[in-house]
Amino acid sequence: MRIDAVDIQNFRKLKSIRISFSNETTLFVGANNSGKTSAMLALGHFLVDSHRFTTNDFTLSNWTTINGIGAQLEKNPNPEDSQKVSLASWIPVLPSLDLWLAVSQDEIHYVRQILPTLDWAGGLLGVRLRYEPQQLDKLYQEYLAATKVAAQTKRARTENHKDGPRLNVTLWPENMRSFLDRKLGTHFILRTYLLDPQKKDQKVNETLKPQDLPDETECIEGNPLKALIRVNEIEAQRGFGATGASEDESGEDHKFTREGHKLSEQLRQYYSRHLDPSDSPEPADLDALEAIETSQKKFDERLESGFASALKELESLNYPGVTDPKLKIATRIRPMEGLNHSGAVQFEVVPEDGKEIVVPLRLPEEYNGLGYQNLISMVFKLMSFRDAWMRVGKAARITAEDAPEKNLIPPLHLVLIEEPEAHLHAQVQQVFLRQAYEVLRKHPDLKEKQNLQTQLVVSTHSSHVAHEAQFSALRYFRRLPPARDCCVPTSVVVNLSQVFGPNDETEKFVTRYLRATHCDLFFADAAILVEGPAERILVPHFIRTGFKDLNRCYVTLLEINGSHAHRLRQLIEHLGLTTLVITDIDSAESTGHHKATPAKKGAGLLTGNATLKEWHPKKSLLDELLDFPSNDKVKTYSNPSFSIRVAYQTPVKVSFKGKEEIALATTFEDSLVFENLELFKKLVGEGMTTKFKEAVNLSPDIQTLEQALFEILRDGDKAEFALELLISEKRNVLPNGAAEETDAALENLKTPFYIQEGLTWLQSQLVTKKVELIASVAVAAPKLETAK
Q1: Is 498 exposed, middle or buried (0-12, 13-18, 19+ CB in 10 A)?
Q2: With a threshold of 0.90, does the pTM exceed it?
Q3: Average pLDDT for 338-345
């Protein structure tokens, strides 16, 4: 048994999404505020503890509908109105989670409560968990009573103050949202409904649509998932160094993750559940208990002799008298108390091999680095989750009073981890993700066996964690702008296992590329694909100096050769990530070979760039590309918030040797020279920098310069050239010729026009998205309660 997928509706910014689960590890990735945390919280709210729900967990745009229900109720409070007590108007806005399980026929004894038909023969089973009003009539009665009291109070105030106008004071409840802010837990409950597996993938206009339940659908009594799934969580805010909450005595294992921040507290909880010899002792525990009793007896004897003189002095005050009870001092030593102190966990400094240490060097746990505390804490929790699920040690002792179904170990263990990368070094992040699933399966009854399944779900902001996961395990959360029927931004989840076909060579290339670059493509607001190392080094400088708004955004810059940029097309289009492709026009002969002389217009040349030929604008003739309108270099998609743009070299007008000329560059480097001729005349440097300087100063015309630059770039080191520009100086001759002064060349470097155009477009796209987001949040923000 395993979770195949979950559909989440109306929970925070997750208006309606599907998350497919991998068999083992599923990784949630995406930019900030894309919905990853909302998805993790939804799993916790629905599968662990529904008491966590608050009104803030309802999708903001749905409060217009809910408040409308309250307003309509105030207009027509007639209890005989049949529509008043119908749940139909609530259903479209209620938070819900559809859980789809893949179950084999031999597991039917686990799922008998959720079988859709008696002839079910294995496959998918689905249930809907919906957070809904428990009794609508009571909810409405209490709401109307509260609004009536508020109205009466306002009328009384008006009648008592007829001497002038008064400010309009807002009284609770202003609307249904205001009422539920206080009363949600009183009137709402989580209920479970059966789903039809045949309707799991039904679509409307090519969009997945959660199936509708008939009005007469009855909920399932009790919690049918309790014996099926064990859920444990490790939350993002682990609060190292802070004192945890009081020790959990309820035996509810999910609370283990939300309390006990320090490792010593976790150890105490683990000990009490699995190791305490005083709890249902076994033969192996008797030696330990005997040792405890012997110690207690000897300690009591020492206390009695130690307090003898004090007690004798007390008798001089005539206590105890003849009828008074006699004072007796005794101890009670409990194994648990041995761990109940701040120094229970320490870190020992281990000496080098072969050296003896007389006095151990130890420090309390809070003196160890936060990264190691986090790593140890998470691994220890995973071990605890596994052992509690498999009932290791004392957890295996089932008392006679327990219900018979508790003897069945749930066949599925779901573990949720939020942001494991906190405080961890990059390499440790990778190691943790590799080892986490193995820790959860390290038990003789698990290993490779299939009857008990473990599924791990991790949300992360770390490209290092994402780097370690299989490409098919990634689920990308993409932000969507507000739709016409929704005034707030929402999210959609992209299953990256479906981006490429089976055994696709492009997938192999992309996977290897992302693993080689530690790519943070999955966490960025936008991407810039560049041709080579020179652009990778200098484009960030252009952004810092000329594009302040763009510099504030999270933009990832990837260096990928122009002949391979198009291979990222499927991934970028599935991600819906706004992308600028800065590439070279690469002139070539009609045979396809690169031209041995500089590019010229009207010579029947082609482009050798696969991106321009296969992605956008899908043109091969050099002349067509050079004349292509700037606005048409943007490729739009059905998603209005997503587009890509290509930027490549075009003819530029330059002033050279006193003449106005048209120069045509075919690479980033000669574009820099043509648009910074005065700078390169005075540039101080080595290698290609010196050669460019000589070419600019010695060439009689632009055609000669084009040829000279072409020859230099054939064998030049472009990365070295870009690095030289970062440290180069421009030499200026003073008017009297007596001395020279220098200043940094980079401060005077002009951005090539084609890159300037591209960056301007990208900045405008991100600024527009930001404005739309701010405007939508302002519209959707609920009013604050000003008076009660």
Answers
A1: exposed
A2: no
A3: 55
